Amino acid sequence: MIGPSLPSVRFMYYIANVEKKSISHAYESNIARELNRSMIKDMNENQNRKLVLIGAGSSMFTQGLVADLLRNPGRFNWHLALVDTDPRALDSIAKLCGKMISAKEGSIRLTYSTDRRDVLDDADYVVCTIGVGGRRAWEQDVFIPRQYGVYQPVGDTAMPGGISRAMRMIPAMVDIVRDVMKQCPNATFFNYSNPMTMICRALSKATDFPVVGLCHGVHDSERHVAQLAGLDLSKFTAYSIGINHLTFMYDFRYDGQDARPLIRDKIHALTQAGIDFKNVGAMFREMGEEAPAISNPYAWSFFEQYGAYAAPGDRHVVEFFPERFPGAQYYGKTFGKDAYSFEKVIAYGDRIYDRMDELGQSPDPLPDDFFDKLSGEHEQLMEIIDSIENDKRHLFSVNVQNRGAVPNLPRDAVIELPGAATARGIAALQILDYPDTLAQLLAKPLAIVELTVDAALRGDRNLFVEAVLLGGYLNDRSAAEAMVDEMIAAQKQYLPQFQ
């Protein structure tokens, strides 16, 4: 996470198990030997890759990334550099990663620092997972609007919480990208931080540096749709286009054939059988065997109306349509309270952090079953890097500037769509058949993005208010102004543009 400036803390682990083999022939001349040594040196250097992870205190992501690097490093010797401005979090995650590398006798060089400028030089990939202010600031994004009758299930992407989060995330992200431009301008930059669309749009306006936003929402939704329809995921594909956390999956294929009839028949059968929605809105960790047969009823309502499923499901999607849920009511429950409990999400995050801290600081080795419980990071990062390095041109869901790829969406907008990971970078697919109705449903959220980005870049309190009013979260200007002022005051230490 990023917070107030802290003294730089620098540590280093170097753990390697690299066998170097020399090539020699008795008949080689001295010149040939020198040429050979030079070629081997160049080849060895070309086999090295450096990845800088900024926001390494995002402990689950970092552990998963290291697990993936250990499991499948490709042909590379990896240098992984961890950055976090919280010295304690950084120390704990670095020690934990060191234990992971030692346990698997991995060939990974691990360095870390509280100052990203210590480690950015020569980076091939920069990955950002920061959360400015951490969970304590996130709580204020949700709790302050509650005082004004605005209830949010997430509050990190849309509604007042997402807008507030953008105010403190965007200046920090702009500073990070400017450092990347200075120290490793050829690096590929991946952003995982929310609010994804607002951050990536702000970076395109402030720096024009190519940034790729990644999220597991579409990937998870493809699995969800396939499982619900009883389809083999390996044979199931879909086109998904929209903005992060509101991406419409509208073209479904199974073995290359149109899968919509199969999905429609399954949904109809489930509906006809009757659905008990008493557990809808429970977090997945609570649902167990009692989950409703259709656990994202609002996301599926788009399928009934337009033949599209709204990824990544209700918890995020409903935040783009609050006017459709008067009183924040969702099947008799209240958003953020007993429907997608915000407090339980925060408590879960705190437990994950505490466990990471415990494992990192403990003098004991990792538990025997540690890797059994760690499936790797689920955001497909290493698969994307592998596709780039080997020019495989595999498709992934990415967040990039439209630039005409989807003609009926604004050219400058950052959208989520299929993109090929190539040796030349991410190449967005051109989508010429995106339904106009779905495009029109994105018009208002995209307008809120533009207002929010300009407010964050300029430190413009009036635009902050206008973004809240445009969303319809509050209809009284005086109430919107009071809420915005309270949010700015609560987050002041993270808002340099409002000083």
Largest sheet: 7 strands, mixed
Helix content range: 40-55%
Strands of the biggest beta sheet: in what spatial order?
Answer: 1-4-3-2-5-6-7
CATH architecture of the domain at 10-213: 3-Layer(aba) Sandwich
CA-based shape: globular
What's the β-strand tally? 16
The N- and C-terminal alpha carbons lie at a distance of 21 Å
CATH level-4 homologous superfamily of the domain at 10-213: NAD(P)-binding Rossmann-like Domain
Output mean pLDDT: 90
The helix count comes to: 17
- CATH top level of the domain at 10-213 is Alpha Beta
Uncertain regions spanning at least 5 consecutive residues: 1-44
CATH topology of the domain at 10-213: Rossmann fold
Structural class: alpha/beta
Strand residue percentage: 15-25%
What is the rounded Rg? 24 Å
InterPro entries: GH4_Enzyme_sf, Glyco_hydro_4, Glyco_hydro_4_C, Lactate_DH/Glyco_Ohase_4_C, NAD(P)-bd_dom_sf
Protein name: Glycosyl hydrolase family 4 C-terminal domain-containing protein
Pfam families: Glyco_hydro_4, Glyco_hydro_4C
Family: Belongs to the glycosyl hydrolase 4 family.
List keywords for this structure.
NAD; manganese; Rossmann fold; four-stranded antiparallel β-sheet; Lactate_DH/Glyco_Ohase_4_C; 16 strands; 43% helix; carbohydrate metabolism; 499 residues; alpha/beta; Glyco_hydro_4
